[in-house]
Every structure is written in structure tokens, then in C-alpha cells.
Amino acid sequence: MAQVIGLGIDAGSIALIDELVAAGSLPNLRAVRERSVRVPLDGAPNYRYGVLWPQFVAGAEARLGGEWLRFSFDPSTYEGYQSGARHSIDGHLPFWEPANARVVTLDVPGTTVMGPGVHVTAWGADAALYPRASQPRGLLREFDGRFGIHPGYETYDCGWHDPKRLDRFTDACVTGAGRRADIAIELMTRYPDWEFFLAVMSESHMASEIMWHALEPDHPLADFDPGARARLERVFRAIDDAVGRVIAHTPDDATVVIFSLDGMRPSPGDVPSIALFPELMHRHQFGTSKLRDHDDVSAWRRAGCPPLVPRRGRAWRRDLNEQLVDPPHEPWRHHVPGYDAARLSAPGRRLLKHRKGMEIGVLGVPVPPESTADPETLDAGRDSADGFLFIGNYREHRSAMRAFALPTFGGAYVRINLAGREPLGIVPVDEFESECRAVESLIRACRDVRTGEPVVARIDRLGNDDPLDNREDRYADLIVEWSRPTDAIEHPELGVIGPMPFNRTGAHSDRGFAWVSSERLTPGDLPVHSVLDLPPTIVRLLGEDAQLPPSGEPIPELVGVRGSR
To answer: Which of 270, 274, 303, 292 is nearest to 496 (CA)?
Structure first.
């Protein structure tokens, strides 16, 4: 079996990378690009649902329910919860296992430490959905001590509004990228019999979600911080350096695959899905508000709708909580999935609560040590999403609503409170379709207060035509994709909701890429292929007789006669 090394640049926008390559800022990636076969990858439609990484690992097309989605719904409690990464999804093992490849993985989202091979998970991955762990056990603990933690661990609440905090975060990404290269080189050296080595750079994901507004001249925050673009470029230069160092330690006859499953685009800012939309649904159902109205929306409009700027040195969530009519009695604390941990309330203050021996990242988030639990236990983990997302303030009302919003990190998810499916369901089955249409009409009637344009780009139906089909195990019935960064919406009857401060300014897009180089390939450009074609292509690059994953097709120009199933 041949050797293949895959280096993922998580959510690495090909447009930005090409721009920086052309400017001479990424010399190592430029060298790889010039000697590679270059393939654009299409992640539509599943990039919108956050399933590209589990789909890649399984080598199978994702369903929008069951074990695939990041979030699940517990009908007995009306709770949205976050599922951990699983070793097997719908019966699909990681695509490299049926291929019988000796594998080493580092920080691959959606992976676990079960199965054959050497695995390090959540050393510094963005949204790893798996506790910090390794196989063999103790390897991650060793790397933490020898190379250090990733100082940018858990960056969701970094915030675009605090330049000093962004400076610390950027430093953390640069340091983390360098340490990740150190760990990758150590793994390659310590386990030299690997056939498939797979490592993912998460820093591109972390930095792009926080600072993407710097690349979008029409974004409401485009001019807020002149230094944001320079910080983002610095992170990509650190990634370039790390990639160059890892490739320098790769055997000359190995095939190198540099890839990203998706890219980046302007984000609606989290606000509409997590705050504005659930408030709209609440007002529609009950005629009352959980959010306080803005003091003077007319004055805000006359001022040109300036974005609200959160207070520096604290998390975005606290500003949202202050807009509640009845703020929670307990102060919000940062949630580290799977661990009883909290963050610093502000730089320089004492830690409110943490486990003994935890190191602290630059944003004040405790970095848990390597888990000592059995892999089977870790593989079944779950955490309440309502407990740490602002939308959880609306959970207590869901059972009394005809339709309600569920936790999300992207588009808004809507579930119909259906009789016969939900234990307290109030919508008869024969009214399911009309209720879906009513929700769609409610949302489509909303306008962006800043622009006056519709806030909705599209609304998709999830699942098949039978909402009672237990095999679907769907999380929601509708998903709403917003049209633009939105911090305030207006409904003709329910009034204005917002403004509220933006959070993340970058969101995932459908365009990824793969650059594949080896001694036998002639550099050049290929037409667009599905992201589903990447796993079977890697398997064929490993060997002619290796078992292919269930979905996608090997790209013939990359594998030659080995392209067929």
C-alpha cells in the first residue's frame, strides 16, 4: 500500500488562499499548488448543515438527522443537545478502516480514538465534538507536556469587538499552528510505518469565523477594526509555515493531499438564529416579549444603524442576557463540552471554577487534560445545547408552542410540535403541512431593519413527506438560511426585534478544494467534483485493492486505471 498524507486546512477559503499565494505571502502553499493537480470541491448542500466532516470521515452521504447532525432533539424534555463524535455513523466506519490502511490522525473533526491506528483528538481542533483523548492512551498528555497545549482552545466567544483580545487570539493561533506542526512531525517520526497520515489545521476555521468581516467591504463591521485583515493573514502565514515544515518531513514518494471541505463567506452573525428568530416565534405564539425593545429604533435608523459594540473583555452572551426582560439569576459561564469547567470572568481576574491542574487558554477557557475514560464511554457523550446557547432561554416554552426554534450554530432550525411525535404535541398530523407553510410565511414577511430587504435567502424542508416516520429521526422540519449579516429584523405585525450585537462574522460556504501532488501526476486544473469524491480518491491512491467507501467516485485523473469501483 502506498503512503498518502492528507493535510486539511479547515474552512480554508480558496479565494483568500489564492489571493495570498499570488501576493507571495504563502510560499509553501504556493510550491505545493504549482506541483499539484488542483480540484475544486463542491460541498453543497450539506455545508449548510455542518455535516461535511462526519460525511468525509464516514465516506458516506450524510442524512439530516439521526447520528449525522451536530445537534439532536430529546422529545421527552423538548431539549436540544449536542452529540459527540461517533466511531461509527449509521453503521459507516471511518473510510480508512475498511481500506485496511495503517493510519495516524491528528485533530480531525468528527473522529474518535476507537478503531485501529494512532489517534489524537481535540488537542486543538475547532468543534472537535469529542473530549481530548488519544490512542495509545497517554499520548496526548505527553504532547501537552512536551509541546504545550493549543492556547487558542475554545474560541467561540472571542469576539470581533476587542482588538487587544484579538491580538492575544491571533498570537494563540500562530503558536498553535507551530505546535501542531511539531506534533505532526513527531507522530510521523514515531510511527514511520503509517500508510495514511491525516492532520487538520483548525486555525483557519477559528480565525475566519471571528474576523471574516475584514474581507467583506459591504459587511456592517467592515470598517470597525483596520487591523483585522492583517491578523487573519498572519494566521494563514502561520498555517503556511506549518504545512511547509510537515511536508519537509514527508517521504519523497508519498502522495500529498492539501484540502479543505468548504470555504468561508459572510455570516449572519449568529444573532438571527440564536436570538431574533426564537423571539419572533415567541411573540407570534404568545403575543409577549422575552427581549426588551430597543430604546429608540427610529434614532438608531437615523444614525445609519450602527452595529452595537459589546463591552470589551467579556463574552458576547452576557450582552444578550442583558437584553432579556427577565435576565437569568445565575451568571452565564463558558461551557467546555464534557467538563465541569468555567472561564475567567475577565482578563486578569481569578478563575471562577476549574478542575485542579487545568491549563488556561489565552481567552480564559480551561483546557481539560486528556480524558481517562474508556473510548466506548467517550463515544456516547452528549451535552445540553440549551444549557450554553442563548436560545436555551426559550426552551421552557416549546411544549406550549405550535412550532419552535432549536439550538444551532448556523441556519435556524424549526420543529413543529406535532401530535403523535412530540409527547405534548398540539399540531394534528393533518395540519403539519399548513403549519410549515405558516412558519415560512411568518419568516418571509420579515425585513432587515438596516436594508429593508428580506432576511431569508431560502427555507428547506428536512426529512421525507411523513413527519411521523421514526426512521428519519430528524432534528427539525425546516431550516432557514439567512440572506445577509442581520442584527435587527422587522415584522409588519410583530414589530422590530433588535438590534443585538453580532458575534461570529464568518460562515461556511460550499466551495472547497484539493491539491494532490505525487511523482506520477502532472500538475493542472480539473473541473469541480463533489466533496464526496475525496475519500474514495484517497483510498484509491492508497492501493488498487483497497475497499472503497460507500459514496462518491474516485477522480479518474488522480488515480488513473484505479478510478473504477
So the answer is: 292
Q: Count H helices and E strands in the chain, helices first.
A: 15, 24
- Rounded distance, CA 313 to CA 158, Å? 9
Residue with cell 502506498: 2
Strand partners, 411: none
Cell of 27: 510560499
Beta bridge partners of 359: 367
Of the three residues 455, 483, 503, the one that is the final residue of a domain is 503
pTM above 0.85, yes or no: yes
* Spatial separation of the C-alpha atoms in residues 217 and 544, rounded to whole Å: 48
Encode pLDDT of 496-508 as tens digits: 999 999 999 999 9
Question: Is the bond leading into 423 cis (omega within 30 degrees of zero)?
Answer: no
Structure confidence at residue 345 (pLDDT):
30
Return the residue matching grid coordinates 504545550.
148
Same domain, 426 and 541: no
Q: Tens digits of per-residue pLDDT, 323-339? A: 899 887 665 555 554 44
Exposure string for 236-271, b = 16+ CB within 10 A, e = fewer? bbbbbbbbbbbbeebeeebbbbbbbbbbbbbbbbbb
Contact 559, 518 (CB under 8 A): no
**Nearest-angstrom CA–CA distance, 236 and 55:** 25
Partners of 42 in beta bridges: 511, 530
Q: How many domains does the chain fold into?
A: 2
Range of the domain at 225: 4-59+95-266+507-563
- Report the alpha-carbon distance of residue 180 to residue 202 in Å, rounded: 10
- Burial (CB count within 10 angstroms: exposed 0-12, middle 13-18, buried 19+), residue 73: buried
Give the span between the Cα atoms of 400 and 381, in whole angstroms: 29
Q: What single string gives the DSSP state of each residue in 68-95?
A: SSSEEEETTTTEEEEEPP-SSBTTBPPT
Q: Which three cell numbers stand for residue 294?
A: 430597543
**Residue 134 β-bridge partners:** 120
pLDDT on residue 294 = 85
* Residues of the chain below pLDDT 50: 337-355, 563
Residue found by looking up cell 498518502 in the block:
4
Co-location of 242 and 319 in the same domain: no
